[in-house]
Amino acid sequence: MIIVQKFGGTSLSDDCSRQHVLRHIRRERAEGHRLVVVVSAMGRRGEPYATDTLLDWIADNGNSLPDREKDLLLSCGELISAATLCSLLNREGIPAVALTGGQAGIRTDARFGSARIVGVNGARLLEYLEEGKIVIVAGFQGMTETGEITTLGRGGSDTSATALGAALQAGIVDIYTDVDGILTADPRMVSEARPLPMVSYEEICNMAYNGAKVIHPRAVEIAMRAAVPVRVRSTFSEGTGTLVTRADSVRRQSGWTDRPVTGLAHVKGVTQLAVATEEGPSDVQLRVFRAMATNGISVDFINVTPAGVLYTVIDQDAGEALKLLGGMGLAVRSRSGCAKVSVIGGGMNGEPGIMARIVEALTAAGIPILQSADSNTTIWVLVSEEDMVPALQALHAAFGLHLVPS
Length: 406
Ligand code: ADP
Ligand code: MG
Description:
Elements: E1 2-7, H1 15-30, E2 34-39, H2 51-60, H3 67-74, H4 76-91, E3 96-99, E4 106-108, E5 117-120, H5 123-130, E6 134-138, E7 141-143, E8 149-151, H6 156-167, E9 172-177, E10 198-200, H7 201-209, H8 217-226, E11 230-234, E12 242-245, H9 247-253, E13 263-276, H10 284-294, E14 300-305, E15 308-314, H11 315-327, E16 332-344, H12 354-364, E17 371-374, E18 378-384, H13 388-398
Parallel strand pairs: 1-2, 1-9, 2-6, 3-6, 9-11, 10-12
Antiparallel strand pairs: 4-5, 7-8, 11-12, 13-15, 13-16, 14-15, 16-18, 17-18
The chain binds adenosine-5'-diphosphate (ADP) and magnesium ion (MG).
Magnesium ion binds next to loops.
Binding site for ATP: 6-9, 177-178, 188, 213-214
Enzyme class: transferase
Organism: Cohnella fermenti
C-alpha cells in the first residue's frame, strides 16, 4: 500500500530527531509499503531555515519583498529539508528522490502566502514509486498553472500530505509530530492531557478550527472527502498515536463509547465588542455586520438582542473595528485580552446537562463566563485571558478527560 508520511519542523530539527525520521521510513519500507514523505522546514523560529526565521528576515529588511518573491523565499525551508533527507537516505543505500511541491504535481491558485490546492497530478510520483524510490516532497508549497511557486499558509505541510494521500488513494496518511497524537487538550496548557486513540474527522476538524494546532483543519477536510484515514503520532516513539477516521468507525471501534466530550481547544487574543442599540426596529445590527464584512474583519461569538449586538474579533482587528463603529456614531464597549475556550464532542448532541457542568466547573473555580455559544458538537465560552489555563484545567477535570484509556 502507499503510505504518506509527514514530518513537522521539530521532527527534522537536528541529527538526533532525523535519526528517528529514518527509523519510521525504514520500518514502513521493510513492511513492503511504498512511501511518499512530506517534510516541513527544519526547526522553529530562530533556527536558520525555519519558516518563522525567514519571515523575521523579511520583516527585518523592511517588509519590502513582494508577495510572489516572498513565497519564493519561504519555499526554501522545505526544499532544504527535502534535500537533507534525500542525502540521508542515499547514504544508507535507500533510493530516494526529492521534489518541490510543483514537481510533485501540487497545483494551486495564485493567492501567494495562502494558496489553495486546486488539483494534484500524481503521475510523476507514481512513476518514482514504481521504480522503488522513496519520494520526498517539500511540504507547504505548490505551483500555479503558469509555473509560479506558491505557499499554502500555516500548517500547509499537513495539507500537502493529505492532498497527496487523497490523489494517490493512500492507505494512510501519517502525520508525525512532537506529541503522542491528538490529545484531550493542548499539553502546554493542561499537563494531564491524554492522547486519544481515535477521533472522527469532524471532531478533529472542530478542535483544529477552534485553535488546536496539532493538524490543520483544511488537511482534515481533504482527507475526509477522500475517505483516507489519518494518523497523528510521535516521531520520537513507536506509539501508534491517534487514528482519525469516520464517526461511525470511531463509535464501533472505540473502547470509550459514551463520551459526550472529546477534547478542549483554545484561542487567545480575542476582543469582545458590545454595541448598544435603541429599542425597536432598526438596521443597526445589519449595518454593524456589513461594516465588518466589507472591511474583511471576521466576527465570532455573535449575540444579537433587542438591546444590542455582542461579538468578538481578534485583538489585531479590534482597533479598526472600533474606528468603524465610532465612525457610525455607535456607543461601543470593548474588552480586549479575552480567550475562547471550546468544549468539543461529537457525542454531546442532545446530551442534556453539558452546559450545566461547564458552568458548574467554572463557577467552582471562580472563573466568570463573559459570553457563551453552542452548536451540536461544540460549546464555546469566552473568558478573560488570565482565566484561560485555569478554565481549561477545570473543564478537563470536570469531564474526566484525564481518564481517557489509551
Ligand atoms: P509540527 O511542527 O509537527 O507540525 P505543530 O507545532 O504544528 O507541530 O503541532 C504540534 C503541537 O500542537 C504540539 O506540540 C502541541 O503543543 C500542540 N497542540 C495543541 N493542541 C493539541 C492537542 N489537542 N493535541 C496535541 N497537540 C496539541
Ligand atoms: Mg504543524
